[in-house]
Amino acid sequence: ATGYTTLDPGFVNTASTKSAITYIDGEKGILRYRGYPIEQLAEKASFIEVSYLLIYGELPTSEQLETFTDKIRRHTLLHEDLKRFFDGFPRNAHPMPVVSSAVNALSAYYPDSLDPDDSEQVELSTIRLLAKLPTIAAYAYKKSVGQPFLYPDNSLSLVENFLRMTFGFPAEPYEIDPEIAQALDMLLILHADHEQNCSTSTVRLVGSSDANLFTSISGGINALWGPLHGGANQAVLEMLEQIKNSGGDVNEFVRKVKNKEDGVKLMGFGHRVYRNYDPRAAIVKKTADSILKKLGAGDELLEIAMKLEEAALTDDYFIERKLYPNVDFYTGLIYRAMGFPDRMFTVLFALGRLPGWIAHWREMHSDPTLKIGRPRQIYVGHTERDYKGIDLR
Ligand code: SDX
């Protein structure tokens, strides 16, 4: 055919975006939220504090944090009709489409919240999302295991409430394990934002058409589900299980990856921006050991993961391509040890990423020069040609 030109497959026409939220230096493995290093936030802050920081730009005073926490507490319930929404899904549905549909449905339950220029409504939608996503996520899990939904208990923190709604039963009190709650809180901080990644760019693109916050976030959840993005944390566990079930030979698996046999990849490795160790992976790895020991989780998969990392980090194929573990490589092991099924891992990623998505959507709408997103293309199709009747083709 005429008019075709070959393009370097790596060529991507990306419009650069200005943002003041998150800074990444991929070469040095630096990640900062509003200027604060991720290592300090992961160690010293709480997820709700970091959510406040990302969305409003500054760490909250104790009074601001109290007000913010209190506002969120008052919105953790779902509308009773929205609770029935879950009945329409098959029990074996993957929780990601259930969660993204329920989030999108919030646009129907709060019709006044649709105008992105109504700052009061945007504030209310922000609080509603932060408050209701944990409830929606817990209900998606309960639906998948056929257990009754629990109403939120607002005497608990956001993370504790989520754990209780997920693993608790109406018939008996649920004992919060503070170490698990603290570990999950830290993991949510690590996932809270990551500048213009695929799902955040989706939220910005959808939001740039003046679509409301709920529907924009729902778009981000859908993008996150992809195994090359947030879905990687589930894919890592499936990969480790596959290696274990085929005898645990990591070198054989690495050989397959290097030969690109059946397109197999080392899931949880590589990153478009980090050409060094993902700082989040380093933090997760440090805690993975202690949390897994505490939970007495099968550390066979952890052992395979560590052997796999060791094999990859010393192999020229990965070194030349600057492939290092990313945030997804170890998180799945911890989530599984906490009792979450693999299919909930990406839902947990979405729970963490929510404040980042909201912050980017609000930052974009605060720009008076905002224009609708319209990526350009390089046309490589046919040059002009005339229509031929069906008998002449
Ligand atoms: C997240 O953007 C973000 O910030 C995302 C994220 C966030 O917080 O939002 O950090 C979260 O999505 C982390 C990434 C999770 N995904 C995975 O772990 C899936 C496995 N990783 C790869 O699919 C890949 O590394 C990507 C998608 C993450 C990045 O891909 P790039 O930057 O497009 O790199 P590439 O595909 O061009 O790869 C360059 C080379 C290729 O080899 P050659 O063609 O040069 O021979 O490296 C190879 C790739 O085949 N390669 C891998 C590999 N990743 C890249 N080979 C084996 N295993 C891998 N994981």
Automatic annotation (TrEMBL):
Q: Which GO terms describe its biological process?
A: tricarboxylic acid cycle
Q: Which domain of life is it from?
A: Bacteria
GO cellular component labels: cytoplasm
What the entry lists under InterPro entries is as follows:
Citrate_synth-like_lrg_a-sub (IPR016142), Citrate_synth-like_sm_a-sub (IPR016143), Citrate_synthase (IPR002020), Citrate_synthase_AS (IPR019810), Citrate_synthase_bac-typ (IPR024176), Citrate_synthase_sf (IPR036969), Citrate_synthase_typ-I (IPR010953)
Heme in keyword set: no
Q: What catalytic activity is recorded?
A: oxaloacetate + acetyl-CoA + H2O = citrate + CoA + H(+)
Pathway assigned to this chain's UniProt record: Carbohydrate metabolism; tricarboxylic acid cycle; isocitrate from oxaloacetate: step 1/2
Q: Tell whether Protein biosynthesis is among the UniProt keywords.
A: no
Q: Which Pfam families does the record match to this protein?
A: Citrate_synt
Q: Which family does it belong to?
A: Belongs to the citrate synthase family.
- Tell me what this protein is called: Citrate synthase
Q: Which organism is it from?
A: Rhodococcus coprophilus
